[in-house]
Design goal:
Blueprint lengths: L1 E9 L6 E10 L6 E2 L2 H13 L10 E4 H4 L13
Parallel strand pairs: 2-4
Antiparallel strand pairs: 1-2, 2-3
The structure holds zinc ion.
The site of zinc ion has 4 residues, from loops.
Length: 80
């Protein structure tokens, strides 16, 4: 596993959205991503706060560092 900044596609959202620069641990073999509990919680908060737009124009891209609720340093924990 190695620590990386990844993009998360929220393709089930309307319109589809993307969050950039999310800290995650990525498996170098299979590409599986693990998020710390704190990051996962913040992603949920971001998802909830997007709201539903009236028009679909293009892919919205959000910078995780900018939209995350807290600026505290996030400790990355491994699941294994
Ligand atoms: Zn793996």
């Amino acid at each position: 596993m190695e620590e990386r900044l990844v993009s998360i596609c929220l393709c089930d959202m309307n319109p589809p959205a993307k969050i950039k620069d999310v800290p995650a641990r990525v498996c170098t073999r299979c590409g599986e991503r693990l998020y710390s509990a704190d990051v996962a919680e913040q992603l949920d908060d971001i998802r909830d706060s997007f709201g539903t737009p009236d028009h679909i124009e293009e892919m919205h891209v959000y910078d995780f560092k900018r939209v995350r609720p807290s600026d505290d340093e996030v400790p990355i924990t491994t699941a294994n």
